[in-house]
Amino acid sequence: MAGRCCFVSTGLTGTTCSANRAAIGTSVHVELSFLCDAATESGGKLNALGIGIDRIRLTASDTAMTPKADLGTWGSRVTLMVGNAVQDLAVAALVLEEAERLVASGAHRSSTLCGVPIAVKDIFNTTGLRTTCGSRILENYVSPYDATVIERIKQQNAVIIGKLNMDEFAMGSSNENSAFGPVRNPWDTSRVPGGSSGGSAASVAARQAAAALGTDTGGSIRQPASHCSVVGLKPTYGRVSRYGVVAYASSLDQVGPVTRDVRDCALLLQAIAGYDPSDSTSVNTPVPDYPAELDGGLNGVRIGLPREYIIDGLDADVSKAVEQAVETYRNLGAEIVEVALPHTAYAVACYYLITSAEASSNLARYDGVRFGLRAENAENLIDMYMQSRAAVFGTEVKRRIMLGPYALSSGYYDAYYLKA
User: N or C end of the chain: which has fewer CB within 10 A?
Assistant: First the structure.
């Protein structure tokens, strides 16, 4: 099969579903659209994500593929994931069942995400679900605990419907570096969705999930969100807990939401943001009411437009999109000011030095002893380490692991890593 759905396993208790392609066919659309009345039972407040939880619509259609969860076409051509695909009619029915159970319990009156189907990048530790990071070394790893952000969306009664494909250990910008196959752009399957959170952006654009969580180290939420025409946000470092997130580059990694629009983004950020004593880099400051701030306009807000970003060679369509955004902000009352970011020229070099150095340290734990595949015919301990890591890590991960120790070695640490 050319590919698999972006979901590796369902988050619904006691559920393991395999997609029966023959039974589903190629013309069945499962649209996880929660249609709601604006005046809900939650005191006039939308149940969740501006979408609500009234019902799931299952429709059979022979129409051309659009960015919806077309199970036959999507399951074989677009977003790919580990093992058996689980995004099928059974999963959709279970999401509906879980949402109805939550509503019946009255949970929707006090929780902003009640019943909303949310998928998460396969980098978050989740109890009962595999956490692979898109790598063979963690292919069968199941965490004994939930990441803090997973706990928080569960507390809001969201329904976690699966884990999403990603570049291996979040190393990549096209989502072609996963050990389990690439993710494709739902708007045009000949194009990439961006990365490393390509599965997150593609699933939301394809209406396979109402929202998703991703991580961003050097653009890994924002870039795929742009590629897939959805909203993605990298919050300020320390605003959202990283506890329980498999580390790539600890100085830069950050958790953020991927949604269909800005209001959904604000609602999901509201749910996951806040101080976490389990994360030493978490900042203990109050969380603003992000959704409430959306209605205040932009009068008095100053937005900087870096002159270093408007350069020769900039794609004409990108330039036009930026100009349109600037004009929109002006019309909303914002003041646009040109700013200088003189260190922009060094950004890529600094990024690769910092991320490679920290990745080589963070990935040292994957040695064939505690996690994943272990070489069976090794002659000694060192040989076992070498064979195990060589067999399971992808090319991009190996490249960055090799770069890291060089930057951290004696005589180069001060000259490279510390300077970056």
Answer: N
| 227 CB-near residues (< 8 Å, 6+ apart) | 185, 191, 192, 193, 194, 198, 201
Reduced to 3 states (helix: H, G, I; strand: E, B; else coil), residue 269 is helix
pLDDT tens readout for residues 263-293: 999 999 999 999 999 999 999 999 999 999 8
Stronger pLDDT, 349 or 99, i.e. the higher one: 349
DSSP track, 178-199: -TT----BTTBTTS---SSSHH
| Contact between 177 and 400 (Cβ < 8 Å) | no
Residues recognised as catalytic: 121, 196, 220
Contacts for 94 with CB less than 8 Å, ≥ 6 apart = 10, 12, 15, 17
Q: Residue range 134-145: average pLDDT?
A: 92
Q: What is the gyration radius of the CA atoms in the chain, in angstroms?
A: 22
**For the residues 193-213, what does the mean pLDDT come to?**
92
C-alpha distances in Å from residue 108, one per residue of 135, 136, 211, 417? 37, 39, 17, 49
Q: Which residues pair with 273 in a beta bridge?
A: 240
Nearest to 259 by CA among 326, 211, 318: 211
pLDDT at 412: 80
Give the other-Cβ count within 10 Å of 412's Cβ.
15
What mean pLDDT comes out for the span 221-240? Answer: 96
